[in-house]
Design brief:
The structure is a homodimer of 363-residue chains. By secondary structure, chain A is an alpha+beta fold. Chain A contains ten helices and 13 strands. Chain A has a single domain, classed as Ribosomal Protein S8, Chain: A, domain 1 (2-Layer Sandwich), CATH 3.30.1370. Chains A, B: InterPro entries: Mal/L-sulf/L-lact_DH-like_ah, Mal/L-sulf/L-lact_DH-like_NADP, Mal/L-sulfo/L-lacto_DH-like_sf, Malate/L-lactate_DH-like.
Amino acid sequence: MAAAPATPATDRRVAAQRLGAFCLAVLGAAGADAATARAATDAMMHGSCLGIDSHGVRLLDHYVRALEGGRVNPRPSVRIVSGFGAVAALDADDGHGALATFEAMRHAMELCGRFGIGAVAIRNSSHFGPAGAFALRAAEAGMIGLAVCNSDSFVRLHGGAVRFHGTNPIACAVPVPQGRPWLLDMATSAIPYNRIQLYKSLGEPLPPAVASDASGFDTRDPHEAEMLAPLGGAFGFKGAGLAGLVEILSAVLSGMKLSFDIAPMAGPDFSTPRKLGAFVMALKPSAFLDEAAFRAGMERYLDALRRAPARPGEAVMAPGDREWAEADRRATAGIPIDPATQTAFRALAARFGIKPPFGEDGG
Amino acid sequence: MAAAPATPATDRRVAAQRLGAFCLAVLGAAGADAATARAATDAMMHGSCLGIDSHGVRLLDHYVRALEGGRVNPRPSVRIVSGFGAVAALDADDGHGALATFEAMRHAMELCGRFGIGAVAIRNSSHFGPAGAFALRAAEAGMIGLAVCNSDSFVRLHGGAVRFHGTNPIACAVPVPQGRPWLLDMATSAIPYNRIQLYKSLGEPLPPAVASDASGFDTRDPHEAEMLAPLGGAFGFKGAGLAGLVEILSAVLSGMKLSFDIAPMAGPDFSTPRKLGAFVMALKPSAFLDEAAFRAGMERYLDALRRAPARPGEAVMAPGDREWAEADRRATAGIPIDPATQTAFRALAARFGIKPPFGEDGG
């Protein structure tokens, strides 16, 4: 991420396996059924392993609160409620967003196997988590995966003065022969909202034209920032248009809440289901052309991209390259846990009688 | 378009019907079969009616050159060459891009009617024209339409110092009850390349961070601009990622040329087919949820969007609103024809013995 300040130095690092086991145990102790605990953990660990910490294990405390408060059904009956050819609608029964979305992608992939393409609209879901985790499931099975979701309003329209769309991410994963998938996972806002919190805590000015004050005017003071700008700066109609596409696929096509109708993720209400929609799709390359030709095309494309000349001091990367490199580093060095998350984990560990994932020796 | 300078005042205005008839006659005289002439005219008239003049009748002279030179097959056998469930591959037989893409969308819509979704990869095609024209066909039939295409390299990667992707547009059209479709049609570059020509001819500086010189460094001098920046400015990895998604769907999934392998649109070679790929998709809302619920959702979304407070001196619009308003103005006032296109039209008219669409009285 071009404009991200450095990670604070007070993080602790924890091995992925230990961290995942802790999340599973905590979610189970909070009442989640095994499938919910597994799906929520898998999604958070995707974020934490790939360096997308905003959607990593930082969310565990939030998810426990949502499960215990009643916002999220801890033992949902997630099921396909209608289908037509290569598409379907899945009802998440107010369950965890990751459970619903992994299951929707599983069904989209099954449809894709039969029809070359499959799409599923998700109803009655909750917080989406890292969109890339869901798209990736398709790529791991040799398919192109797409996952989008709207979310509570944080982003103004182009020319707008109020929060309108959510950060409405678009994730797409494409299988790569002898390599890890091409993986795009981007908010349609200029920056993620939690980036503002980060600049605030570091006392640094925001990049230009990424956030607005309460009147919709651009501000570089993170303390004044009340909303995000759509992707594109002076050409923000493009970012707002993409956010709209996500909104239509996620919320309109599922009959769920539009961004400005969604209760804030942060509460205070943690008892009412948020009725989120989402949309996933899978495409099978070999349904369009010879599998070998597809593989050769991806190889040639990525090879040329990675060899393309860069501006001095800069680098060119394919979507996902930065994240996969970070995953390799974290596989060795462990996953950094920020101080606030450490505190939350200690409290959860104490409440549920579970050993925290970091030892008293600081390891 | 936020940063577009005003249209020069030396344009002539012509009624749409007269302009379309002229295009049809010229294309026919240049050897195009009736289907090619119709499709190319429909696509150009979409651009000219909606104010997307870069993809309007300005292209007629270019298309004649491509048809006569042999780059574009004037009497192609466009056909579906393979299919699997809800997807197919269409071979354009080196025909006109608009003919191939309208036909591909027609087939995608037929698949969509049977399976709720349909997608077609297009092979051996040529210049795409206005992507929105193809997406719109689906919306006019009550479906969500998507159309993407890669094109010859003009856009650097994020951090890149050379042209890599084409302007790789994304178009999506969504049906709106009692209204004209929601219509997004955007290049994944910061600005279109022809915008640079416009700034050049007007002697105005470019907006910041939209174009680079021959070394990939940002420049505001249109005479120095050698390539475009990806959408997103400091967050150009998003624009480059979206361009990559278009590249994969259009070129890799069709087995066609990657952007950097495509012969330049501007020639000098006008005899060799350019072997372009493209990708279209249609989704049927009623396959996902009750049709009335979808319509109500779109109405509520668009109503809220259009009523959303704007920043002082600015306006909020849904994708397509600006274009539909311009279409209304042009339906009354006529379509402006720039001086270079007037000259080209006079030459075409003289060569083919066809009456030009503007009278000698200047009308």
